[in-house]
Automatic annotation (TrEMBL):
Substrate binds at residues 42, 193. It is an enzyme of class 2 (transferase). It comes from Dialister hominis. The lineage of its organism: Bacteria, Bacillati, Bacillota, Negativicutes, Veillonellales. It comes from the Bacteria. This is Hydroxyethylthiazole kinase. GO terms for molecular function: ATP binding; hydroxyethylthiazole kinase activity; magnesium ion binding. Its cofactor is Mg(2+). Keywords: ATP-binding, Kinase, Magnesium, Metal-binding, Nucleotide-binding, Thiamine biosynthesis, Transferase. Pfam families: HK. The gene is thiM. It catalyses: 5-(2-hydroxyethyl)-4-methylthiazole + ATP = 4-methyl-5-(2-phosphooxyethyl)-thiazole + ADP + H(+).
């Protein structure tokens, strides 16, 4: 499925995307989902997490501000999502920073089948069992592109899922096919929420195009990167606050023509 077709489907289908996410960027994620054409719902109560996933088209699990109860809700929602056959998209925020986070992330992978895992390089290295240090929620340890791609592939094969490492070039792999998205701009790493929004956008595209999660992930990462480029060009001069809002503006403005013309990738 080409990228323009993926975007068209998101807008036609207006999928419901259940999120259990952090309290730092929750509003950014809800607005990013709406802007690209989805319908977000944030629900983390133990009493309703499974029911909400039961009426949704995808589930996004983001451990940015985790606690023991939130993880229990994630497991209930994740199992309901797996049972229903909707994709679960996992953002292992801060994995590699503390042992609690590492243990909880491992537990989630044990209990729930994730369709897509999206994180920065040290988060994915840590999840893959490599020695990695995450600086709070920011990529700590770095790695060459080839080494990062090898780690992503190994994790994708181990978890039977798609793995995305975001960065200057975003790596997307299912363990067999690997591509690099070259859209985006360095300033995206300067605002909190660009990673979380990426995961939300991936979740929204996967919800609408669940028959081809690789193409959906590719289109979603392109949409995010293109929106970042255009927002920086339009609002960067005014500063990071305007850029932040501009990113959501462009997630709403992006259309089939723009994604087909401005989306760039290389084979990995
Ligand atoms: N140096 C860079 N050049 C281009 N795009 C970047 C760069 N750093 C981050 N991005 C983009 O910013 C978004 C968030 O990625 P990242 O900063 O790795 O996530 P996180 O916030 O989870 O650490 C992605 O769309 C990614 O492509
Ligand atoms: C700062 C922070 N602290 C806990 S979650 C969070 C937001 C992380 O967002 P992102 O991964 O998109 O930078
Ligand atoms: Mg992040």
């Amino acid at each position: 499925m080409d990228t323009a077709e993926c975007l068209k489907r998101v807008r036609e289908r207006n999928p419901l995307v259940h999120h259990i996410t952090n309290y730092v960027t929750v509003n950014d994620c809800a607005n990013a989902c709406l802007a690209v054409g989805g319908s977000p719902v944030m629900a983390d109560a133990l009493e309703e997490a499974a029911d909400m996933s039961g009426i949704s088209d995808a589930l996004v699990l983001n451990i940015g501000t985790l606690n023991a109860d939130k993880v229990k809700a994630m497991i209930l929602a994740g199992k309901a999502a797996n049972k229903k056959g909707i994709p679960v998209i996992f953002d292992p925020v801060g994995c590699g920073a503390t042992s609690f986070r590492n243990r909880m992330a491992e537990e989630l992978l044990k209990q729930v089948h994730m369709a897509v895992i999206r994180g920065n390089v040290s988060e994915i290295q840590s999840l893959a069992g490599k020695d990695a240090q995450t600086k709070g929620v920011d990529a700590g340890t770095t790695s060459g592109l080839d080494e990062a791609a090898a780690t992503a592939k190994a994790l994708a094969l181990r978890e039977k899922c798609i793995v995305i490492i975001s960065g200057a070039k975003d790596i997307i792999t299912d363990g067999n096919t690997t591509i690099l998205i070259t859209n985006g701009c360095p300033e995206m790493a300067q605002i909190t929420g660009s990673g979380c929004m990426c995961t939300t956008v991936v979740g929204t595209f996967c919800a609408a195009c669940s028959e081809n999660l690789f193409d959906a992930s590719k289109a979603a990462m392109m949409a995010m990167g293109i929106s970042g480029e255009k927002a920086w060009a339009a609002y960067g001069v005014q500063g990071l606050g305007h850029f932040h809002m501009g990113l959501i503006d462009y997630l709403g403005k992006i259309d089939e023509e723009m994604i087909a013309k401005d989306g760039h990738f290389e084979n990995g």
